[in-house]
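Risk register update: the risk of archive-format incompatibility is retired. Evidence:
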Amino acid sequence: MFTSIGVDNFFAEVVDEKRPVLLAYIIPDYAHAGQLEILEIVSKRDFYDSVKICLLNDNSVKDKASRNITIDGSPTFIIFNKGEEKARMIGKTNAENLMSFVLKTLAEFQNTK
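Archived output:
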């Protein structure tokens, strides 16, 4: 399960979140439908309590709430920690690669504590 992020909840759900956040931007069209399924698969994995998974809606990309986030394409996956961008992956992926991206980034957080 993942949280839909819009103008009204961007700061509360991403910036103010205590856990790391995987924020995904995926254009809602036929060409990217499989990426939504991959995000859903990853959201059900064991690290669910360690990472909040969010989907940035299309209207938020142009809004002031996300003005500090540059979206260069779809899909874009960004990991935030305490409101700061820590890692980014752009382009279509599969569940294993997205999991690897998240786990590698989480490991880096733990190594810096």
